[in-house]
């Protein structure tokens, strides 16, 4: 995701983000606040995801990355992991045809090895069916961790060096970026985290180098188009400099 030139470089401040990434957090607290099981929070979180995919399309955003299961989420109780995997299965089975009809291309980043075969088959099916779609890239970060993604890229580069196919001096940021999970997708312009937490939790740490971070207090199941528009308005007030000078004073 990092080799393409930053998609918004040189854009006017009023221009919207082309790539929005979301850390969908707060399902459990949403449920606890209502005396409901955590699983109900996750179920309502899928409904929020449907709303947001539609809203993002309407707003002309080209890439939406969603953090749906982290490498570290394996430390949750097995029942909760089962609930989350069940929801992913149901989401793909129920929504894939609609996503395809709406021109959404599904991509999956993260570690596939070790996932149950039926989950891998569903992820592959979603990617294959929607491969030709161009309206919106929906990048699902599933079993994803940024450190692991970077380590995997380093391993591939090291192998090329060991096999004599690459000179170590050719390893730079672009070369490493080529071996991340979705190298053709531009870096996120805007990363939103819901639920009030203010951290990345191992999400897109390489790609976030110049992303604008917006933290909203809303728990993910309550996230809607208005919340998204609020985050985009906050993004529009930011001044992106990419290490250069402010637009007003720079030449
Ligand atoms: C986000 O909600 C869903 C995942 C991390 C899979 P949480 O389950 O983290 O909800 P909280 O943070 O406990 O409220
Ligand atoms: C990040 O949320 C992972 C996802 C949203 C999938 P967590 O709830 O797992 O993050 P921490 O543990 O609060 O940092
Ligand atoms: Mg959480």
Would you mind describing this structure in some detail?
The protein has helices at 27-33, 38-58, 78-101, 117-129, 146-162, 173-178, 225-237, and strands spanning 19-23, 63-70, 104-109, 136-144, 190-193, 212-215. The protein is built from 7 helices and 6 strands, in the order βααβαβαβααββα. Mean pLDDT is 94; it is low at 2-14. It has a 6-stranded parallel beta sheet, with helices on both faces. The protein is α/β, with parallel strands linked by helices. Helix 2 packs parallel to helix 3 (78-101) and helix 3 packs parallel to helix 4. It has a single domain (19-144, 182-236), classed as Decaprenyl diphosphate synthase-like (Undecaprenyl pyrophosphate synthetase, 3-Layer(aba) Sandwich), CATH 3.40.1180. The two termini are 29 Å apart. It is globular, with a radius of gyration of 19 Å. The structure holds 3-methylbut-3-enyl trihydrogen diphosphate (2 copies) and magnesium ion.
